[in-house]
Design a protein that fits this description.
About 45% of the residues lie in helices and about 15% in strands. By secondary structure, the chain is an alpha/beta fold. The two termini are about 30 Å apart. Strands 3-2-1-4-5-6-7 form a seven-stranded parallel beta sheet, with helices on both faces.
């Protein structure tokens, strides 16, 4: 395995009991990083922690809690008060028609997918600057480049985080602290499955047909494997990645069609 130069570093990986967060934690554990992983479900989180320990030998602390709440963030930061690496991640808001969403629905979406990552960054970035090393990776969505009509709340909230990061990343880069975003397209996660089910119910197609259509729409001819995103996250966290600043790395199998990203 390529030595990323981060063995012994400490990381917080949010929403890491499954899916893309788990994949990021697993990749970082494989690089020798000491992990604090968070998720709302304690049992699933403990199972994931045990699996990462078994597969990588990494030190893993499971800090159960909802990262979109002040209490959940406090638990994560108490378990790792001086993170060298922060991977922000949270489940996306539900799909639907914007006419059906209340102000409370919007506030929940903005809190989960914009404000909570910002609060985690605020709690950790100054310490990273003082120690002259920091890697912050936000898992957002390909929808910040190409909006998905039925995911309007996600489009808006994640685009807000992207705009904030674009400014802050340039302010802290001189301290060897980088902030970048991973923009996943269709990956085989519970989120994709629920979205496919929603579309299947609206279209009259079966769930399996809807998943096959998702894969057909991707030039790569398939949906992504979460481990592929985990590897990209670990790369952005590498000691040698200090010149990658404020970027939005799109992992969508070529679905976004542009001469330049």
């Amino acid at each position: 395995m390529l030595d990323l130069g981060i063995a012994g570093r400490k990381a917080i990986v949010c929403a890491a009991s499954k899916g893309l967060g788990r994949a990021c934690a697993l990749a970082l554990g494989g690089a020798g990083v000491e992990l604090v992983i968070t998720a709302r479900g304690r049992e699933a989180l403990e199972e994931t922690a045990a699996e990462i320990r078994r597969l990588t030998g990494a030190k893993v602390i499971a800090a159960a809690g909802d990262i979109t709440t002040e209490e959940g963030r406090k638990r994560a930061l108490e378990a790792c008060p001086e993170p060298d690496i922060l991977v922000n991640n949270a489940g996306g808001p539900p799909p639907g028609d914007f006419r059906d969403w209340s102000l409370e629905d919007w506030q929940k979406a903005v809190n989960a997918n914009m404000l909570s990552p910002i609060m985690m960054i605020r709690a950790s970035v100054d310490g990273m600057c003082a120690r002259r090393f920091g890697r912050i990776v936000n898992i957002t969505s390909a929808s910040v480049k190409s909006p998905i009509p039925h995911l309007g709340m996600s489009n808006g909230a994640r685009a807000g985080l992207t705009g904030f990061v674009a400014g802050l990343a340039r302010q802290v880069a001189r301290h060897n602290v980088t902030i970048n975003n991973l923009l996943p397209g269709p990956f085989l996660t519970d989120r994709l499955k629920s979205s496919a089910l929603y579309q299947a119910q609206r279209s009259g197609r079966s769930f399996e047909e809807e998943l096959a259509l998702r894969a057909k729409e991707v030039p790569a001819g398939r949906v992504g494997d979460p481990d592929e995103l985990g590897a990209a996250c670990a790369f952005l966290c590498a000691a040698s990645s200090g010149f990658i600043v404020g970027q939005n790395l799109l992992l969508d199998g070529g679905a976004f069609n542009a001469t330049m990203g």
